[in-house]
Amino acid sequence: MGTKGGLDMIDGLWTVEFTSTLNRSGKGVFVFNNGRVLGGDQGYYYSGTYRTAGTQIEGRVNIVRFDPLSMSVFGNIDHFSLSFTGDFNEYRLTAAATIEGLPSQQIRVVAQKKEDMLL
Q: Which of 34, 43, 45, 80 sits in a 20 to 30 Å window from 74, CA-based?
């Protein structure tokens, strides 16, 4: 897989909803830009990388708590990494992610594109 040169269909601002295997859910935002993904929610920020091939995406994101009172969709964790794979089009992304080292801890990701990146 490789990121396309120039403006990729996935590059932009996305709203995202998460549901974990622990029946916890959450919402946040992602910004995809040229192989880099950044984002966050009310208590955590996200930083990672991704690659695309056609309409498939895979990547890795570090999740770090900045609000000590917030709880992730996986519970009371300060920091963890997720590996994800999924499919996308210009409006919607769906993916499955697992906590690295704990494959039984999974999350479903559904995102909607809100803004394109401008050149």
A: 34
- Establish if 29 belongs to a structural domain: yes
Determine the structural domain holding residue 96 and report its residue range. 12-114
For position 31, which CATH number holds?
2.40.128.380
What size, in residues, is the chain? Answer: 119
Sequence-separated (6 or more) residues with CB below 8 Å from residue 93: 10, 14, 16, 57, 86, 87, 109, 110, 111, 112, 113
Task: Look at the chain and report how many structural domains it folds into.
Answer: 1
| Cα distance between residue 1 and residue 12, in whole Å | 19
Distance CA 3, CA 53 (A): 7
Does the structure show a pLDDT above 50 at 3? no
